[in-house]
């Protein structure tokens, strides 16, 4: 969901003159809040659809809904940082993370039965902890696992948000040069 949101919405924009005094960090945070709100709404709608349209069995429905919104917030933070800093290249990186997550996070196939590459990247994929967190709400909660997954996911979300917040301004000249080169090459629109 966050990837689709990132692909559709614009991360670079021109401020109206009345807001031209805003700092890069203020603009980054304001735009992130927009994506975060939309992403959490999208996560809530998807989770409600799973419960009431599909009839998914879930032991702890309130936590399931809360974690669906939290997961959306974490993935919005990751993708917003990538797209805000790197533009279309960031979207490509997001797709690579998505593809690796499908095979390497254990959501649809046990990781222990996957190749060594996927077993090696499994702990580094935020989707691993997202799948585990939702499994806790679906099958019954084992609190030590839930807290571990929750802490790791929040750390991913906060780390990516802060990386974007503090790197946006310093690498801005390099990013603008990169955007100019990619537009000029007509490889990426």
Automatic annotation (TrEMBL):
The chain crosses the membrane at residues 32-53, 65-86, 92-112, 150-167. InterPro entries: ABC2_TM (IPR013525), Phage_infect_YhgE_C (IPR017501), T7SS_ABC-Transporter (IPR051328). Keywords: Membrane, Transmembrane, Transmembrane helix. It is a multi-pass membrane protein. It is found in: Membrane. The keyword Transmembrane applies. Its main location: membrane. GO terms for molecular function: ABC-type transporter activity. It comes from the Bacteria. This is Phage infection protein. It comes from Lacticaseibacillus paracasei subsp. paracasei CNCM I-4270.
């Amino acid at each position: 969901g966050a990837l689709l949101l990132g692909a559709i919405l614009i991360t670079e924009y021109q401020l109206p003159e009345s807001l031209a005094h805003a700092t890069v960090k203020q603009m980054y945070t304001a735009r992130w809040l927009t994506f975060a709100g939309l992403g959490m709404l999208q996560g809530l709608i998807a989770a409600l659809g799973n419960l009431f349209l599909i009839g998914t069995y879930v032991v702890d429905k309130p936590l399931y809904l809360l974690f669906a919104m939290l997961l959306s917030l974490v993935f919005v933070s990751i993708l917003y940082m990538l797209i805000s800093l790197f533009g279309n290249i960031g979207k490509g990186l997001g797709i690579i993370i998505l593809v690796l997550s499908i095979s390497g996070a254990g959501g649809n196939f046990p990781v222990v039965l996957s190749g060594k590459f996927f077993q090696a990247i499994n702990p580094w994929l935020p989707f691993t902890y997202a799948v585990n967190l939702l499994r806790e709400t679906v099958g019954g909660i084992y609190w030590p696992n839930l807290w571990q997954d929750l802490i790791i996911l929040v750390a991913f979300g906060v780390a990516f948000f802060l990386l974007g917040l503090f790197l946006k301004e310093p690498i801005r000249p390099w990013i603008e040069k990169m955007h100019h080169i990619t537009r000029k090459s007509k490889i990426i629109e």
